[in-house]
Design a protein that fits this description.
Layout (H helix, E strand, L loop, with lengths): L1 E2 L3 E5 L6 E6 L6 E4 L4 E5 L3 E6 L4 E7 L18 E5 L2 E5 L6 E5 L4 E2 L10 E8 L2 E10 L2 E11 L4 E7 L17 E4 L5 E5 L2 E5 L5 E2 L1
Antiparallel strand pairs: 1-2, 2-3, 4-5, 5-6, 6-7, 8-9, 9-10, 10-11, 12-13, 13-14, 14-15, 16-17, 17-18, 18-19
Length: about 210
Amino acid sequence: LVATETEVCEISLKTGKLIRTHKHSQGTCGVGFITAAKVFLNNGRSLAIMDMSNGATIRKIDLMKNTKSEEVLSILKPHIHHTRNGNLLYIARPCTFGIAVVDLNKGKRLKDLSIPKHAYTDRLHFSDGNLFLVNYNLSYGIINGETLNLIDVKTQTIKRSISIESQELSFSTRTKRHPLKMVPAKDGSIFVSANQKTWHIDNQGNIIK
């Protein structure tokens, strides 16, 4: 399943052939299957649920209601980032406090995760009951003070926090030439890369030497 700014396309991995395509109005978005017939389209500000049998939008969920967003001085376009745990989708919204949580099965937005306090989320990944978050602060529209946090979803507490600057890392994704990337591994750990460097971090938030 892939999406352009105007179309969502279902492609057979077995044959490589296009199965079906439908128009959508979400613009740049991330997509995923809910069931064999239903998909979601997330653009960071709203989430649409589409019936792939006919292209009809079943529901559109506002992700920005009761939130406050900020403007960022940037040379890069904001990216769309979400991670999934079963029917729950965790969504990082552009320059907005907290993580939006959507129950895909019910088609309903749940209560936001509000940790860490007063920090924005750039990237996130779910692993073994935890969320890896790359958080940052803003100073006059400039991203700074970036931190990698490991959040226990059940207790909504921070289990581990790594200051990026203290590790001599630079995750300034919107002001650097080499944007940060976070890639999950099968064992629950993650690989994080930025500015032509890569770090391996286990599922407890420890940097593997």
